[in-house]
Amino acid sequence: MDLMYLLELGVNGALSGLMYSLVAMGIVLIYKSSSVPNLAQGALTMVGAYVVLAYSNGAGLPVWAAIPLAMLTMMGLGLGIERVALRRLAGRPVVMILMMTLGLDIFLRAVTLVIGGGTARPLKIGISDEPLFLGPLLLNRAYVAGAAVALVLFGVFVLFFRTRRGVVLRAIADDYMASWSVGISVERGVALSWALSSLVATAAGVLWGSIQGVDQSLSLLLLKGITVAVLGGMDSLGGAILAGIGLGAFEAVTSGILDPMLGGGTRELVVALVLILTIMIRPHGLFGRHDIERL
User: Is the pTM of the predicted complex or chain greater than 0.85?
Assistant: First the structure.
């Protein structure tokens, strides 16, 4: 197989992997404040794209105005989810909160299916379909734009977690009861993490919706996002970025080699295998924190 072709696959795969990292960052943001994997992140990504469509196609707003308005709307939704569904579960067993996020995922997918239907709808955000030439390589412009957005948001969140509010969120994740005992508002901290996660979900939904259209399939990005989050470490934003690059490149090159031989469909298989092997071999991920409990 042509080496240049594999290189092109790897570079484009790495760029798409950074877009997977957007979904993973939403998962990490909530995990860093509540130590709970958010199984509704894929559905939030899908809903964010539908909200942009509602503002741009339904309300007639230009897309440059619809996107920030949709981000604010989704932040409000994140705050509402924490207030209505999750606040009363604070301090309860983690499995109860995990099941709540799974139920939320099912609920959001059902609501958007009823309202938006099952037909994919295009979302144009002004990115050309023409490839971008980097020497002999042909790059997908949408992947380049998505990678740039992922890196910018990563930088913003790294700075955020160095602020006093960011340190408070980490303290909440470490110990709910200790945080309460020193006067930290655990509820407000978790609500903020859900708002930020919903904002990131909107960015991911817009970018992926512009590539593949807006429909129920956007919620399936949860598999890619949670694989990146687990591989990089559930509490590591930097790990999400590096794992996204690695997973995207590995997925693209592997499927490029295997698809012609097996008839296609190997992308999801590769991602599932990476997730399973990571959990079996290194459950805390490549860059996650390994807490040791002493009895």
Answer: yes
